[in-house]
């Protein structure tokens, strides 16, 4: 027996009323449209599950608590802007720098989620995964046009989240493309939220121009507050000290 995603229309998208001899567009079509839209922004179900409410603060290192406070304040600021009808152009950027496992992705996801509820879609870009998928279109002649299509979306989306900058790979092509993204959004005053395991190393990986813009923009020009949180290990510190995955084990 075939299993349908939508039992109402059996995936045809249309419901027929035979008595009246008319057809209606099934309600699943709106849902599917929304799902496709969210997918094009790489917004997955994770977004629903990673919020401020379920981020554990109890017993956390003060660097992590500080990052939480920064992310929460930043998120509230964006929400206020949207509610005031100002939009996000001109908003400061936010950076969360920290060792693997300290909860960076959870916090940026939590910061962006309330925007989705207000109808502002953040575009989620994972350094390794998204660059790999994006540039794979270059190798398919009939789909190569998508490279520019995606680039335009990354350039112009209301808010861009770049997760794990420079993780695993610092390919020249990626670095160059990323410079274009950061420079464009810097000039257009379009905010970026980013995470990375690196801090000062980013200057070497990305160039002074790119890293400088990333750091500079985290400062709120009106208040002077910096939305740049560092959850970095000191030299000789236990490498698992900030890793929540090991918290209950040792
Ligand atoms: Zn249906």
Automatic annotation (TrEMBL):
Organism of this sequence: Desulforamulus profundi
Name used for this protein in its record: DNA replication protein
GO MF annotations in UniProt: ATP binding
Domain IstB-like ATP-binding positions: 95-197
One Pfam short name: IstB_IS21
GO BP of this protein: DNA replication
SUPFAM superfamilies documented for this protein: P-loop containing nucleoside triphosphate hydrolases (SSF52540)
Origin: domain of life: Bacteria
């Amino acid at each position: 027996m075939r299993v349908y995603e939508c039992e109402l229309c059996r995936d045809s998208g249309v419901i027929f009323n035979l008595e009246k001899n008319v057809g209606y567009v099934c309600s699943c079509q709106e849902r599917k449209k929304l799902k496709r839209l969210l997918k094009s922004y790489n917004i997955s179900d994770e977004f629903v599950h990673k919020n401020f409410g379920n981020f554990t603060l109890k017993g956390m290192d003060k660097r992590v608590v500080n990052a939480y406070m920064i992310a929460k304040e930043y998120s509230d600021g964006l929400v206020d802007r949207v509610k005031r009808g100002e939009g996000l152009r001109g908003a400061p950027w936010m950076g969360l720098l920290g060792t693997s496992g300290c909860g960076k992705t959870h916090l940026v996801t939590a910061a962006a989620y309330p925007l989705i509820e207000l109808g502002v879609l953040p575009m989620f870009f994972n350094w390794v995964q998204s660059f790999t998928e994006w540039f794979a279109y270059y190798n398919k002649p009939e789909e190569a046009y998508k490279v520019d299509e995606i680039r335009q979306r990354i350039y112009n989306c209301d808010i861009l989240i770049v997760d794990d900058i420079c993780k695993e790979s610092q390919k020249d092509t990626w670095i160059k493309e990323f410079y274009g993204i950061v420079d464009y959004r810097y000039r257009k005053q379009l905010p970026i939220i980013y995470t990375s395991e690196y801090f000062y190393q980013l200057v070497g990986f990305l160039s002074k121009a790119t890293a400088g813009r990333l750091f500079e923009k985290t400062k709120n020009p009106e208040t002077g507050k910096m939305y740049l949180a560092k959850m970095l290990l000191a030299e000789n510190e236990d490498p698992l000290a900030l890793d929540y995955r090991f918290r209950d084990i040792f």
